[in-house]
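Re: How this chain folds, sequence and tokenised backbone to follow

Filed under: protein folding, tokenised backbone structure, sequence and structure records.

Contents: The amino acid chain and a row of whole-number tokens, matched residue for residue.

Body of memo: The sequence and its backbone structure tokens, given next.
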Amino acid sequence: MNHKNLVVLVLSVFFMALADAAHSNTTNVEESPFSVNSTVEDIFNVSIAHTEIDANYSHILVVSSKSGQPCLLAALNATIQISYEVLEVIVHESYETTEDIQLPEDVSAHGVCGGNQSHLLLEWGNGTFHLNLTFSIKESDLVSENRTWSMTAISVSYDLDNLKVFPAASEASVMSYEKSGLTLFTTELGRTYACDRDVTVQVGPEDKGVTVNFHNVKLAAFGVTSSEFPSVTDDCAAEGDSNDSEDVLVPLIVACCLSAIVIIIVIGYVINRTIQRRREQSDYRAM
């Protein structure tokens, strides 16, 4: 064996060893709960309880752990506004249109509960639509007594190949968008978050992404002990009322300032005209 072949062999063995080491390290890393290598049914243990609770919430989605203990409760309504390109056959040009997709009551729900992060995956339309909600405990509150959680990420995917939902779509492909770094529906552990106001989230770019509008939301993502929502509820009404008052207060202040400016201008004009008239009268008398 010449020196050239020996060098090639040594390098080959070296890179193979590196690959094995990398593989052994990656096997210790926890896979994402939504890994494409496993089916949802293999990973999640989820039950859907169609429990009548009030006029706004017709059913509850109950995510249970492997031991059967409920760990996440959700009752929500959502509308997804999707923009897509439609091909005009006659002029052979495309234009943009929108579809409002309502979250159905018979949505297929899956989920997973973790120590500091939980997921709720909603699927409907025979696999056409997927909505993944991620809930996380605030990192700075991990050692505090009154820990809080929020919805920190949301991802949406839909299949434009479904022509019943997206007629004349110019492209048949699966579109996926994700937004992280959110702090929505913040509440304390062991409490229920309830809100009957609209909460809008823009996922992806404004020109090509989707808009998710939540309404009539009731959630309990951590500290759940049964299939019923915790009795202590953090309502968004108080926060929403304060926001509404601020929204009214700011235009009111601006209107008052503009009115004051107009009044000052009118008074200045009247004073100026009065002075000019007196001057004209004094000049006339002097003549």
